Amino acid sequence: MMNNEDHFLLFSTCIPVKGHESSLIMDLDKSEYLEIPNELYDILTSDHFTHNIKKIKSLFNNDYDEGINQYFQFLVDNHYGFYTSNPSPFQKLPLHFDSPHKIISSVVAINKESKYDLTNVFQQLDKLDCQLLQIRIYDHIEMGEVIEALKVLKKSSIRIIELYFPAFLKLSDEVLKKIIVDFPRILITVYGAQESKKNSVLKNSSRVIRYTDQQLLYDSKEVYSTDLFTVSHEMYLEAVNYNAGLHRKVCIDHEGNIKNYVSHNTIFGNVKDNLIAEIIQKEEFKEKYYLKNDIIEKCKDCQFRYMCLSNSDVEKKDENYHKIDTCTYNPYKNTWDQSNTI
Ligand code: SF4
Questions:
Q1: Which of 22, 226, 329, 340 most suits a substitution to test ligand 1, by most atoms within 8 Å of the C-beta?
Q2: What is the mean pLDDT of each run of 10 residues along the chain (342 residues)?
Q3: Which stretches of the chain are DSSP H helices?
């Protein structure tokens, strides 16, 4: 039961985030979020460590006493917060982000014109402790060469390898199944399929081949949707400190160009002439790491800014940063436009 002399605290992993028109509480443990009005955000971010509930109510001129009672009880009932008479042992979540991985994620694009050494690229990414590798295949390419190159990753520390094939390659279930069996960390997606579905190819295994009717083009734009937001400790801490989409990411396009992201225009080198490790040390390459949503126009007013993973390039105009490929969410009206594809 609530006592006005008590303090109300959110759990340290329940993070209130304010947007221009609406706010939310991210629950980093449960990977979910709760939308709340901005007025409640203001109440929740008053200093609850110093002020008890009685004081908090008085800060709002006792205009919202009943609403505050109901909101706090709702948050307690739904495990976002708790009452305590002694808040001093409780601490806010430290916001420091660190990762042992020099590269956290990478996209490597291949088409039939690609002339760079794929095996060597995979070896370089492995040495950089890359965690997530996405391989995009665009054309009728010689699959034997790709599979041969993948062998160097069998003993790598890369955690997840996503392999995107076009449906027109018409790889049989047998071939796909063999890839899955031979490479347990590979997740296969066949794009441009007739229908979106998941096919289980191995008995007694949760591993599936994903088919999607979406196309993957060289300049495919990102899809932004509330379904695709990521609520997690790692994502939050990275997004508070960095551009979560571009931080410690390196991409190789189908010509071997080294970029922050495959669809960006800026090229920092080519794997035929440069080592990836050297390029990612350059200050101009790392510049985008630090352009986090908190300093980008529109995103800084969006309550989804610590869960939205965007690979868009960022440009500076009139002393302000802007995403080149922005989404269709309007934080000033709290509405999504009809299409949520950028
Ligand atoms: S791109 Fe920016 S404005 Fe759009 S959803 Fe992500 S953080 Fe919000």
A1: 329
A2: 90 97 98 96 91 94 93 96 94 93 96 94 96 93 88 91 92 86 90 88 78 86 80 97 97 97 96 98 97 98 96 95 94 81 38
A3: 38-44, 53-59, 65-77, 118-127, 143-150, 173-182, 233-241, 276-279, 283-286
**Whether the CB of 327 sits within 6 Å of ligand 1:** yes
d(CA 265, CA 286): 15
Q: Strands 320-323, 7-10: parallel, antiparallel or unpaired by DSSP?
A: unpaired
Paired tokens of 127: 């040495």
Nearest to 194 by CA among 171, 216, 208, 213: 213
pTM as predicted: 0.91
pLDDT for 12 equals 96
- Which ligand 1 atom sits closest to the C-alpha of 310? 1
For the Cβ of 293 lying below 6 angstroms from any atom of ligand 1, the answer is yes
Task: Return the pLDDT at 274.
Answer: 98
Question: What phi and psi values does residue 199 have, to the nearest 5 degrees?
Answer: -110, 125
Q: Is there a contact between 248 and 128 (Cβ–Cβ < 8 Å)?
A: no
Helix axes 143-150, 118-127, angle to 10 degrees: 30
- Kindly state if the Cβ of 305 falls inside 6 Å of ligand 1: yes
- For residue 308, the model assigns a pLDDT of 96
Q: Whose CA is closest to atom 3 on ligand 1? A: 299
307 lines ligand 1 (CB under 6 A): no
Q: How remote is the CA of residue 328 from the centroid of ligand 1, in Å?
A: 8
Pocket test for ligand 1, best of 35, 224, 229 (most atoms within 8 A of CB): 224
* pLDDT attached to residue 272: 97
Cβ distance 34 to 114 under 8 Å? no
